[in-house]
Design a protein that fits this description.
The structure holds 2 protein chains of 2 kinds. By secondary structure, chain A is an alpha+beta fold. Chain A is built from 6 helices and 10 strands. Chain A has a single domain, classed as Beta Barrel (L,D-transpeptidase catalytic domain-like). A 9-stranded mixed sheet of chain A has the order 3-2-1-10-5-7-8-9-4. In chain A, strand 2 and strand 3 form a beta hairpin. In chain A, helix 2 packs parallel to helix 4. Chain A is flat, with a radius of gyration of 25 Å. In chain A, 32% of the residues are buried. Chain B folds into 3 domains: 39 residues; 30 residues; 142 residues, L,D-transpeptidase catalytic domain-like. The N and C termini of chain B lie far apart (113 Å). Chain B is α+β, with helices and mostly antiparallel strands. The chains are: A alpha+beta, B alpha+beta. Strand 6 of chain A pairs parallel with strand 5 of chain B.
Amino acid sequence: MDNMEKKKLSGKMITMIIIGGFVLAFLVFYSILSAMAPGRKLAEIKSGIIGLQQTSGSKTDERYFSDSAFIKLSKEKAFLQASISMAETDSVYMTLNIPDSTAKLAISGVEVHSAKISGMKMSKILRSGNEYLISEFFSSPMNIVSDFATIKKEPLMIKMAPKDTSEFKPDIIPDTSDYEPVNYILEMDNGVRLFVYQEIDTIPGDKQRLFFFDLNDRLKNTWRSLKRVVRFEVPEYHPYIKIRLPKADAKILYRAIPRKGQIAVYM
Amino acid sequence: MKEDDKINPSPGSGEVSDSDMTHQTSAENVPVASESFFQKARENEKLIKTIRTILGGILSAVAVLFIVIFILYLVPVLQEIASGQKTEFKSNRELKQDKNYLKQIALLTKDIQRLSKKYASFTSGQSYIVINTTDNRFFLYKNKKLIREGYCSSGSYTMLKTESEKKWIFKTPKGKYWIRGKITSPVWRRPDWSFVEEGLPIPSENDPSRWEYGVLGDYAMSIGDGYLIHGTLYKRFLGMPVTHGCVRLNDEDLEAIYNTLSIGSKVYIF
């Protein structure tokens, strides 16, 4: 009986070690592929821009990429190009000026709202990648493909029409109290993700809601990455820009920008 | 000699004092008690199994938690560590004198000037109004300068539904519009939803009950698709989203805006 037990135990132990080994190997594999993702994204950006330059026949001398004057002018030009392209539509669009720490809303070139960014965090490839490539990457406006938020884009209320005048009740004063935290993520067509968080937690429980909002997003992204890794593919890398804005401004920006709106970034 | 022995008994004498006796007893008792506990525990297979299961559970939970934290939080950090290298700016004298470089810089400067001019041309020097539907505020500009601001009311984001699945959404449209018409002493022609909302039967197109006087204030400006900027009787609701899509203003603001904007003036709503 004792020997049987011991054999059982050692069998269990071996199974545990094998499973543990597999999990560890998978974690290492997942980490390696994930670590390769930013490099691949940068290469993708580079090949896209170089390809574009080759077709237009305007290849830039690579020595210029380390010249601050050239980079500064390139960034300015790229931002103006993107802004003009957005101004040609009649829709509301957003511009982010990173050096000035401002987020602005504009319609047809007219600035309609401006907000001060109080905190900012960016992906390393945007912060310290090849600056010329990044400025070219942002030379056309980014199109929002999806959004994910703690507030509703359009706070629609459904009201059933009364059958007759006896059922009619005059409208009551709307509830405009500020009871929801304002945090959202805008996903762009070029893979960039813009995270907007409210500056100060105004309601008790805001921190917890932000934690679960962030956790939900991480889970979604990790699931996407895991699906690619099990197919032996490098997961997609999404460069991010995280900004903190006053709550009221964050809400205005989110509600104003169309679902498939456009954003330009000046780095 | 005998007395000495009594006072200081030699170790080999076999005599032990009372105090020594108590120390030895308590020191021996502890290992004996714990030994018997472990002995009993070792003999109790159920207890061992339970402890093993609990420990195994805790270890598994810790391992799963570690994996989750690793994948969700540490891998993204790892990605950031592994990515990118800062561009090092070099002061290259040779490059600064290079003809192609100078040409490129001149070309970029020229492009920027041209693009800046083009972008600036989008902001007209004419009067225009900006309406913020989230905060329900308006901003009136003349010659690119803010001349008046205040509260307004915009769409309530209500969806009115009938049993026959007919529906209307009361929201103010966003984007660029312009003043298409200016009216003094406007009369409101009640649309179908206005009757449906009150539980009234919808009258014919030109029924007299469709016309209401004095509810839109002294002035109204049309921005297209039936949307108006007009006055209101419900001034206590200014600053709130309560309208059916139109923009409501108080009498003084409405008059100032009516006098500042002309047909063709831009209306920016966000």
